Structures are given as structure tokens and as C-alpha cells.
Amino acid sequence: ETGVTQSPTHLIKTRGQQVTLRCSSQSGHNTVSWYQQALGQGPQFIFQYYREEENGRGNFPPRFSGLQFPNYSSELNVNALELDDSALYLCASSYFTGAYGYTFGSGTRLTVV
Amino acid sequence: AQSVTQLGSHVSVSEGALVLLRCNYSSSVPPYLFWYVQYPNQGLQLLLKYTTGATLVKGINGFEAEFKKSETSFHLTKPSAHMSDAAEYFCAVSGRDDKIIFGKGTRLHILP
């Protein structure tokens, strides 16, 4: 049973650029959630995808968007990067419901300069 | 809507002493409750979860937590701290919308 894989592990972008982060969900999981974790903070919910449709969104602007593919992998896209977007981005997969708990990837560390 | 409050952003205990990390939640529906641990430069690992049934939940690495509805609490304990327990701990809550909401975390320091 494979876990959740995120890529890349680190990247540096310039303010105003666009970035795409990728996530492969755990085998058997059909739901993917994305979180932003700023330094010294708890993870903040960005959005969740279930069966390729957005299934809830946190308090993030529209320049944060996502996709889920038929194999349940997912992408997080961020346009017009701002310095405050610098954070650890965590992907988590689950089966149907978060009641069973999420399996997290190791995250992508994004630095915006 | 759900929310979580973790009391104490930093907790220090001596090796071999009791670990107690406090968590209070707010939920408009019967909650699902979780504790996750995060080691430096890593993702989050599920320690334990409460969904229904027995209110005392045992997790990995000797941790356990008790769901107390009357106190809206879900405190995490471990009888004897080990140096390897030093990490960041997050309490989290989920309601019927299945979105997991995290607290701000408590950093656990183990003193030799």
C-alpha cells in the first residue's frame, strides 16, 4: 500500500509567478484535501476534491485552484504568487469521509521571493 | 462549524514524566476528533482518532485520549515521555462535512 506522494518537495518562485503542486493519493482513497501550513501555524484547509469535483473550500482566494484526475491524483495551482503564499503545502487523501482520518504527504515547501 | 483550541503552544516535560496536551473543540454536530503528530520537515501522522463508541481511545506510540462531551475536550496523554516524543502535536475536529479543521498546534519538548 503506497502512501501519499507530493512533488516537488521544495521550490522557489518569484512574486507574481504561477505554481503547480502535485499529489498522488494513497491507493484506495478517492478524496484529496489540500492544506496550507505557514511557519509555526496549524494547517489551514484550502479545498477538497471528491470524484473530480470540488467538495468544499476554505477561506482562500480564487487564485488558489485545483484539479482531481480520474486516478484520484490532484494538483494545486496558485496564480499571481504573493510573499504570504510561502508555506508548506500538504496534501491528504482519504476514503469517502474524513471520519477515518486523512493520510498526509510530506508536503511541498514553497518559498516566494 | 467546527473549531479547535489547543492550550499551550509549548509544553515541556521531563523524560519519563506524564505527557498531557490539552484540546478543546467546538462543533455543532457530534464530532470526529483526531490527534496528529508532525516531526520536523515532515507531513502529519495520525496518532489516534475518535469517531463513535468508546470514549477512551488508544493510539500509536503509547498515546491515548479521552473524549469528554460535557467538557468538549479531547486531551492527549502518555504515561511516560520519551525523547523521541519531541514533536509538534495537532488536535483536529471534523463534522458532517468531513473537512478536518486543525488547531494551532502544541510543540512538545522533552527534557533529559
Would you give an account of this structure?
The complex is a heterodimer of chains A (113) and B (112). Chain A is built from no helices and eleven strands. In chain A, strands 2, 4, 5, 6, 9, 10 and 11 form a seven-stranded mixed sheet that branches. A four-stranded antiparallel sheet of chain A has the order 1-3-8-7, with no helix packed on it. In chain A, strand 9 and strand 10 form a beta hairpin. Chain A has 113 residues and is an all-beta fold. In chain B, strand 7 and strand 8 form a beta hairpin. Helix content of chain B is 0%, strand content 56%. Chain B contains no helices and eleven strands. Chain B has 112 residues and is mostly beta strands. In chain B, the strands form two sheets. In chain B, strands 2, 4, 5, 9, 10 and 11 form a six-stranded mixed sheet that branches. A five-stranded antiparallel sheet of chain B has the order 1-3-8-7-6, with no helix packed on it. The radius of gyration of chain B is 13 Å and the shape is globular. The chains are: A mainly beta (113), B mainly beta (112). Chains A and B meet through strand 4, strand 5, strand 9 and strand 10 of A and strand 4, strand 5 and strand 10 of B.
Overall shape of chain A: it is globular
**Percent of residues in beta strands of chain A:** over 45%
Q: Return the string of H and E elements of chain A.
A: EEEEEEEEEEE
Oligomer: heterodimer
Beta-strand residue fraction of chain B: over 45%
Rg of chain B over CA atoms, rounded to whole Å, is 13 Å
How do the helices and strands follow one another from N- to C-terminus of chain B?
EEEEEEEEEEE
List segments of chain B where confidence is low: pLDDT < 50 over at least 5 consecutive residues. none
Rounded to the nearest angstrom, the distance between the terminal CA atoms of chain A is: 37 Å
User: How many helix segments of chain A?
Assistant: 0
Mean pLDDT of chain A comes to 92
Cα-atom radius of gyration of chain A? 13 Å
Considering DSSP H and I runs of 4 or more, what fraction of the residues of chain A is helical? under 10%
Indicate the structural class of chain B.
mainly beta
Number of E strands of chain A: 11
**Number of helical stretches of at least 4 residues of chain B:** 0
Uncertain runs of chain A are none
Indicate the percent of residues in helices of chain B: under 10%
Largest sheet of chain B: 6 strands, mixed
